[in-house]
Amino acid sequence: MKVIETIKELRAELDALRSLGKTVGLVPTMGALHAGHVSLVRRSVADNDATVVSVFVNPTQFNDKSDLEKYPRTLEADCHLLEAQDATFVFAPSVAEMYPEPDTRSFSFAPLDTVMEGAFRPGHFNGVCQIVSKLFEAVRPDRAYFGEKDFQQLAIIRAMVRRCKYPLEVVGCPIVREDDGLAMSSRNTRLSAAERENALNISRTLYKSRNFAAAHTVSETQKMVEDAIAAAPGLRLEYFQIVDGNTLQPIANWADTPYAVGCITVFCGDVRLIDNIKYKEE
Ligand code: PAF
Question: Model pTM greater than 0.90?
Answer without folding.
Answer: yes
